[in-house]
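Lab notes, practical 5.
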Amino acid sequence: MSTTAGAFVAGGIAAVGAVCATHPFETVKIRMQLQGELQTKGHQPHHYRGPFHGVGVIVRNEGLKGIYRGIGCASVYQVLLNGCRLGFYEPMRHGLATLLLRDGSKQNLGINMFCGASSGIIGAAAGSPFFLVKTRLQSFSPFLPVGTQHNYRNAIDGLTQIYRAEGFGGLYRGVGAAMIRTGFGSSVQLPTYFFAKRRLVRHLGMEEGAPLHLASSTVSGFVVCCFMHPPDTIMSRLYNQNGNLYKGVFDCLGKTIRTEGFFAIYKGFLPHLARILPHTILTLSLAEQTNKLVRKIEQRILPASALGKA
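Output from the prediction step:
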């Protein structure tokens, strides 16, 4: 196992590779979540009707630059989020299992879910300002605008404008929703991945390697999307609002359901699934490989005593 720092680096590298491949669907997802915001049924625009239709509309009107808006912020956020999630999960799990079960190697679903949620919440809080700016950059469209429009030149301009207008607290607008969303997703992502991996090895006789990582990641990605999408919709709206349209998570949830109906919180589910399945597969599969690489580097440069504690 890599050290905590090594696992953080490996997780961050894996996540950046994944986000470059899946970012277009994230842009479509955010725009679908925001279109028709607080408008009654029958009066909502449908500029973006699904993952592939949305990608086509954006590329035709805004080019590749439009579909990759916010990619810099997304990369920084993924380094922080998945670095924390993949870097802190195993040390936390091992420590709690040692404390509560007297054996750090034992697997316990409750401990695994708690550590998955906790490591994800730490990462979400650390990366929240970057996700805020990413959401606003992705929602902006000079051709088919949805939601509140924020015209930032780039990520640094966005962070600067928010800080000048709203202070430090403005950079953490919506952080509560981000922590809930990521806690939901993280509580099931790694436990589901390792659970599926163990079952596939035990019942189907699969061996360690790319096919096993791919199958386990697919199961994990689908479960994550089902759990995470409603708070993800709320988070997108809280991040993108101008002023105080919503007072908080539950106010946004209530207003959305009352005005647009219950299924409004599942707007953008298909592009979210189209993003999160390959993203989870790539992140977790790449993490397996980057962990091996980092471990080899650590074995060359770190003393045996440091590796023994990892």
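Observations recorded by the TA: The mean pLDDT is 88. Residues 269-301 form the longest helix (33 residues).
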